[in-house]
Amino acid sequence: ERPDAAELINWLAQQRNDLQPPALTLAPAIGDVLSALERSGAILQRMSGSGATCFGIFAGSSQAQQAAVAIAAEQPGWWVTATQTRDFGMDRVHIHR
Fold this sequence. Notes:
mainly alpha
């Protein structure tokens, strides 16, 4: 049985990135990005990998587009884009219940 979006978001919210605390110390701008995503309405915001990228998950594509426009206007030096996830690999995701 494939997880739905809410299940996947709940699972992701319980995960951690062990690199985030040291990355925030070295590059406080990561915290600024995560805060901007939260203020813009992201259901979940995270640092990806070692901090080169941060992302937010939004309720829908229109909310993601609105957030991207708002964040880009607020921070013109940042590279901001709204994207859409694909179903690729979701048949292999197993969430322990």
